Amino acid sequence: MPFIEIIDRDATQEIREVATKDMTDGLCQAFDIKPEIVTCYYFSAPDYSYGHAGKYGENAESFRVFIKLHAFPRPQNAKESAARAITDAVVRAYGVTAKDVIVYFFDRAPSDAFHAGVASA
Fold first, then answer.
1. Three-state SS for 41?
2. Block means of pLDDT (10 residues each) for the chain, length 121 residues?
3. CA 85 to CA 83: how far, in whole Å?
4. From its phi and psi, is residue 96 left (phi > 0), alpha (psi between -120 and 50) or beta?
5. Is the whole model's pTM more than 0.70, yes or no?
6. Rg of the chain's alpha carbons, rounded to an integer?
């Protein structure tokens, strides 16, 4: 914990490798944690799996890279730093604009995270 879910559009392994390193580094700096506890999960959403602003697939105005960050609660300033670092990492790796990167935080209580069947709290 934490883990990052990334929904992208059929990115190459090279793009995901750069994104993984840079997102992990930025999150570790923002949250003052070690990279050994950060995991990234990638999910692809091709054109036919995406709609935005009432438009579907290739007709959608833009494809947004959606990031969900599951972590123990952090102060707002740490989340803001993490969001900026993750956004910058995705912009660099994917070549998209910052406007097309969406980061959502899902705070989890330590008692809600189980590793090997044991709660973290």
1. strand
2. 93 97 98 97 89 87 91 97 98 96 96 89 74
3. 6
4. beta
5. yes
6. 15
